[in-house]
Amino acid sequence: MTDLLTTDKISLVYTDGERNTYALRDVSIEIPDRKFIGIMGPSGSGKSSLLYILSGLKRPTGGEVRLKDYAYGGRPDRELVDLRRTRFGFVFQQPYLLVWQTAMENVLMGAPELHEEARRKAQTYFDQLGIARLQNKLPSQLSGGEKQRVCVARAMMNDPEIIFADEPTASLDHTNGRLVIDLLSAYRERGTVIVVTHDPEMLTGADTVLMMRDGESQGWVTPDQLAEVGAKSKTISLGER
Ligand SMILES: Nc1ncnc2c1ncn2[C@@H]1O[C@H](COP(=O)(O)OP(=O)(O)OP(=O)(O)O)[C@@H](O)[C@H]1O
């Protein structure tokens, strides 16, 4: 199997005066094509930092990151913007939408070109996400969950090789969260989806899950193993009280 995304000993260090914080330390991972990948770990373990570097939103302070043969850890902003716009899709914890545009216009913003095909594709996503009746509404007229579903539709519009999602279900109730995750995971037929989450239940259908701790990779687990780890860590934290 060829790897889509690889990192070679990436680090991310924040320097504040004399003090260095290692958000990531020597993380080397390989992520295959067309998989639904989870990233989990305690708060502050480096999950978002890793996602930002994989997605070209931040540069590593050390090491290298590659999309197939394209190394982009040290590329200028212009190239990173291009990489993100043409090859990646994003869903963030907060639904960022242009407030003066309708839901449909926001989704079409994600399309490389505005033609009838893009409109049809957007329409399909609205239907699949159960928000077809909301397409002409402004973001201010939508609930948080509805806005997030609009963001998911927008992320898919450019047929990205990878969709990066940082806590995409944090603002949703369980039913809407599940709907969003199911749609994201179905995208693995076309590309890889990488989801950072605190909620192991959202990763029950994942192909594999990367565990992070203290800025380091702890290796990969299956969703079943994740449930065991979750149960154990609950016992430990209760026992520590
Ligand atoms: N801009 C920053 N300046 C300094 N330190 C930072 C900055 N951003 C993150 N950090 C530190 O880097 C470490 C990793 O942060 P990161 O946000 O990647 O963790 P996380 O696992 O995503 O946490 P959470 O689950 O709470 O969102 C933490 O110790 C955090 O305090």
TrEMBL record:
InterPro entries: AAA+_ATPase, ABC_transporter-like_ATP-bd, ABC_transporter-like_CS, ABC_transpr_LolD-like, MacB-like_ATP-bd, P-loop_NTPase. It holds the Pfam family ABC_tran. GO terms for cellular component: plasma membrane. Keywords: ATP-binding, Nucleotide-binding, Transport. GO terms for molecular function: ATP binding; ATP hydrolysis activity; transmembrane transporter activity. Transmembrane segments: none annotated. The keyword Repressor does not apply. SMART domains: AAA (SM00382). This is ABC transporter ATP-binding protein.
